[in-house]
Structure formats: C-alpha cells, structure tokens
C-alpha cells in the first residue's frame, strides 16, 4: 500500500464522548428552498392573479399540510442516513384507524392512533438498527404490509367518520390567517424538530450519525437508539398526517386522499434542503419544500400546460428544484 492509499484509509476519530463536529449549513442551502417557492409563486401570481387574490395561498397551505407532516418525518430519517418508504402508508393506515375508532372511543382515538403509528415507525427502526437490514429494503417491504393492513381494516372501501369527529374537523375548519390549523400543526412540528436538532445532544447525535456513523460510534454515540428514534419520529409525523387527512376529508380510503403522498413527501424533504446522503437537514426549510410541491401542479396549470403532460412537467420541475436546493459540500457524497 502506498503512502497516499494509507492516508486515504485513515478515519479521523474524535475523542471518546465528544460528538464529531457538524458544520452549520448556510448560504444557498438555507435560503434556496424559500427563493424557489417565492419564484414559482410570483409566476403563478403574474399568470393567474385572481387565484392569489381569492385565497390561493390558503389553498396551497392547506393542501400541503399532509405532505409537510410526512416530509418532516422523512427528513428525520434521511438525516441519520436511512430512508422510510413506508411512512405515507403508515399515515394512511392511521387515518383509517382514526375514522374507525373516533365513534367508539371519541377523544382517545387520536392518542391511540399516534401511539400506534409511532410504534410502527419504531419497529422499522429497531429492525434497521439491530437486524442491520437496509432501510430501503425493509421499508419497501413494510410499505406493502401497511398497505395490506389498510385494505383489510377498511374493507377495501371508504371509511367515514360516523360520530365524534367535531374536534378533528375543527383542525381544518379553523385556523390562523385563513390557513387551517392542520398546516400550523406542521409548522409547530418543524419548529420543535429544529430545536431538537439544533440545541440538544440527541439532535446533534442524530446529525452526527448521518454525517459519519463510524466516527459517531467511536464518539460513544448511541447510534442504534438514535436510528430507532428517527423512525419513531417518522411514524409520529405520519400519524399527524393521518389526523390531517381526516380533518380535511372526513373519511379515509386505501385509494383516496393520502394514498399517493410517498413521492411528494420525499420530494418535499429534498427540496427543503435535506441531504439524501444524511447529516444535513433543516426542518424549517422543509416547510417551503412542502409548499413548493403543493404549488407546482397549480403552476403548471397556470402556465397552460396540457393535463396529459402535467405529470411529465411536474417530474421535471421537481428534479430541477431538488438539484438547485440540495446540499453539496466536499465531505458529502451524492448517492
């Protein structure tokens, strides 16, 4: 082995008990998601001023709420270097369980659903962390499992909230600045996660795992526990998304609202500046990632793109926006 090869194999190991340094991300990574959203919004405002003037912003925010909640959960998993392909299915299953249980147990139903979805996410994390199953393969499998359970639980039909749904419906019918509380629920979660990541040892440890798991292990970081926590948070966020779906639609179906949110949620996390390689995330900019994903279909319609071509354009725009907003630095590898 040459001297150069030897140098390349060395891994910088911080002192035991000290977290590896995690650089703060600024510049374009911090403002890019905001700039992209505002740029698309300006285009829509110029082409269809009536939409913006007639409560269009509230419509965008309300439609982005489930996407935002799922994207925040996905971002936490991406931050530790994994991915959760099942969190949208967990959210939809949570919505079905909520619709089924609101009648019998009333106010306890949301609590039960959140506990269940958090447990589903934690089980994913336990298998990834302790059985060493790759997160992509595992959650691809549990995606199918949760979809099957949702089909069985719903009887392959739409499940409506029969009674005791007033409190949940109020989350969509009431709001601040004409924006439903379901969206503000996502904003509150984003702020809470930002505080966790920025100011707590647990949050810094999660980012360290995503940056360099080997260094984190040598620093006595409990990497397995933090991975479980990340997946549990993804499950919790999915449960909140399920509540948002019921608040908006009053019903849940395996093929209805929420059944196609997996890719939009991942796109929102990436547009929000989350690194798919791990170790870089800002929950606050994920908010604008979700708003952008909700805005793009409206923008394509405003531009006058044919309905049959909208999916093609939507995909191209998402790729372009992710390319503009994702983090790149010398220490990261784009996988």
TrEMBL record:
InterPro entries: ABC_transp_permease. It holds the Pfam family BPD_transp_2. Keywords: Cell membrane, Membrane, Transmembrane, Transmembrane helix. This is ABC transporter permease. The keyword Transmembrane applies. It is a multi-pass membrane protein. GO terms for molecular function: transmembrane transporter activity. The keyword Membrane applies. The chain crosses the membrane at residues 28-52, 58-78, 85-105, 111-129, 136-155, 175-197, 228-249, 261-281, 286-305, 311-327. GO terms for cellular component: plasma membrane. Its main location: membrane. It comes from Cryobacterium lyxosi.
């Amino acid at each position: 082995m040459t001297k150069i090869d030897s140098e390349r194999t060395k891994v910088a190991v911080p002192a035991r008990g000290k977290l590896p340094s995690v650089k703060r991300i600024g510049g374009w990574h911090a403002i890019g998601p905001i700039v992209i959203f505002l740029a698309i919004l300006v285009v829509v405002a110029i082409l269809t001023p009536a939409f913006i003037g007639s409560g269009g912003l509230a419509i965008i925010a309300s439609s982005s709420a489930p996407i935002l909640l799922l994207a925040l959960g996905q971002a936490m998993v991406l931050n530790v270097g994994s991915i959760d392909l099942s969190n949208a299915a967990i959210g939809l299953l949570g919505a079905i369980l909520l619709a089924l249980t609101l009648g019998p147990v009333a106010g306890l139903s949301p609590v039960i659903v959140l506990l269940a979805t958090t447990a589903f996410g934690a089980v994913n994390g336990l298998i990834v962390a302790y059985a060493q199953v790759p997160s992509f393969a595992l959650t691809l499998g549990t995606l199918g499992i949760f979809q099957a359970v949702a089909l069985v639980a719903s009887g392959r039909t739409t499940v409506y909230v029969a009674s005791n749904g007033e409190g949940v419906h109020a989350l969509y019918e009431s709001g601040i600045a004409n924006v439903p509380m379901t969206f503000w629920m996502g904003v509150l979660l984003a702020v809470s996660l930002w505080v966790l990541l920025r100011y707590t040892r647990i949050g810094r440890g999660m980012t360290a795992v995503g940056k360099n798991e080997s260094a984190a292990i040598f620093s006595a970081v409990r990497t397995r526990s933090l991975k479980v926590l990340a997946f549990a948070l993804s499950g919790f966020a999915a449960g909140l998304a399920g509540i948002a779906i019921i608040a908006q639609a009053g019903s849940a179906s395996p093929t209805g609202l929420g059944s196609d949110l997996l890719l939009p949620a991942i796109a929102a996390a990436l547009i929000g500046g989350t690194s798919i390689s791990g170790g870089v995330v800002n929950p606050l900019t994920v908010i604008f990632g979700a708003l952008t994903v909700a805005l793009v279909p409206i923008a394509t319609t405003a531009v006058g793109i044919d309905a049959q071509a909208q999916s093609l354009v939507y995909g191209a725009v998402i790729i372009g926006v992710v390319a503009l907003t994702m983090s790149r630095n010398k220490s990261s590898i784009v996988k």
